Amino acid sequence: MKVNKFVYLHIFFWLIYLVGSIIIPAIAYGLESVLLDVTFFLASFICFYVNYFFIVPAFFNADKIYRSIFAFFISVSCFVAVRYFIEQLAFPFLFNIINYPKGTNFFYYFFDNVFYSSTTIFISTAFWFFKYFIQTEKEKTKLIEARKNAELQALKTQINPHFIFNSLNNIYSLVYQNSDKSLPAIEELGRLLRYSTKDLEKDWISLDKEIGYLDSLIELEKLRLKNPELLVIEKNINHPKLNISPMILIPFVENAFKHGDFREKGFNMKISDENKILHFYLMNFKKKQLKDSASGIGIENVRKRLEILYTKQYELNILETETDFTVDLKINLKNEYH
């Protein structure tokens, strides 16, 4: 809640209080009682804000009830002191008017006014707790957001070295074999690194850039395959400028090349964005000797990032059998358009 809304709330309260404690009694009983009503209003006003700005913030402690009781009596004392000074000391001297009979004991006056001040103190305390709750929720939201951002940065930096490590392994094999494909591979990797260094720091990139990363990665991996034509890729992109978090799709493709069987087989990949819902499908065959799970650190990171960034806006299904590994991911990108 914005500050000006708190101000409006206070103004509304005091208008109601003014009407109820001064205007209506003046109409009902005449102007004779107005002076005493004004002193009551003034004492309530001062007590309200002394309690609101100083007493409750200084003494509030949920674990120590005695502090709250002590704070209550301080607030009552404030109310009584203001009212006693005006009604019992100033008014008799200035207007020859007195509220309680002369000789009234201060302690009687104090305890008689506990009831009258309690409502003001209670409402003032409620207002403070309301503001405190709103501020606490805002701070909590900021902390959660900061923690999410820090976690996302950590996750993205984990993905990047993993991606570079896999690509360098592929290039090392080509160089070792003196393959004429090694130079194009280095050039392709250089392009990918330029993309990643530039865009990995961003929170969002366009969908066509993310798919461009996939294309470059696949072209890089094709250089080492005997049958690159077995990679079946279908793309149907109608909204290339939709925003997406960088490196969301690449780990799945990396995983396919790392754990997939590409000797006589390939994979089937489909990407579409019908109705601004990204649909990514990838099925690859597993290496026969692969005993552990085909999902690695990259995919686990993507799971975490999806949960943070697209809570209840995505659906990820991963099916692993003895022979193949399938990823079916849908992300609602309708709110991520430029």
Strand content: 5-15%
Poorly predicted spans: none
Structural shape: rod-shaped
Largest sheet: 5 strands, mixed
Which structural class best describes the helix and strand composition?
Answer: alpha+beta
SSE topology string: HHHHHHEHEEHEEHEE
Q: Roughly what is the average pLDDT, rounded to an integer? A: 80
Radius of gyration: 36 Å
End-to-end separation: 28 Å
Helix content: 55-70%
Total helical segments: 9
How many strands in all? 7
Strands across the major sheet, in which order? 2-4-5-7-6
Q: Keywords for this structure?
A:
7 strands, alpha+beta, 338 residues, five-stranded mixed sheet, rod-shaped, two-stranded antiparallel ribbon
Give the SSE map:
Layout: H1 3-29, H2 34-59, H3 65-94, H4 106-112, H5 114-176, H6 182-199, E1 205-206, H7 207-222, E2 231-236, E3 243-244, H8 250-259, E4 267-272, E5 277-285, H9 297-309, E6 314-320, E7 324-332
Parallel strand pairs: 2-4
Antiparallel strand pairs: 1-3, 4-5, 5-7, 6-7
Helix pairs in contact: 1-2, 2-3, 2-5, 3-5, 5-6, 5-9, 6-7, 7-8
